[in-house]
Amino acid sequence: MASSELIDILQLINTDGVGPVTFYNYLKKAGNIGKALDLAAQKRALYPRDAAEIEIEKAAKLGVQLITYNDKRYPQKLLELNDAPPVLYALGRTELLNYPLSVAIVGARNATIAGRKIASRIAYDLTEAEVLVISGMARGIDAAAHKGALYANSQNGATVAVLGTGVDVPYPTENTELYNQIRDKGLLISEFSLGTAAQISNFPRRNRIISALTEGTLVVEAGVHSGSLITAELALEQGKDVFAVPGSPLEVRSAGPNQLIKEGALLTENADDILNVLSMRQNQLIKEQKTLRIPLDKPKNQVNISAHKEVSIPMSETADTNVKLLDLVSYEGVDIDELLRTCGLSQADFFAQILDLEFAGKIERHAGNKIAKIKG
Question: What domains appear along the chain, each with residue ranges and CATH number?
Answer without folding.
Answer: 1-56 (no CATH), 95-306 (3.40.50.450), 319-373 (1.10.10.10)
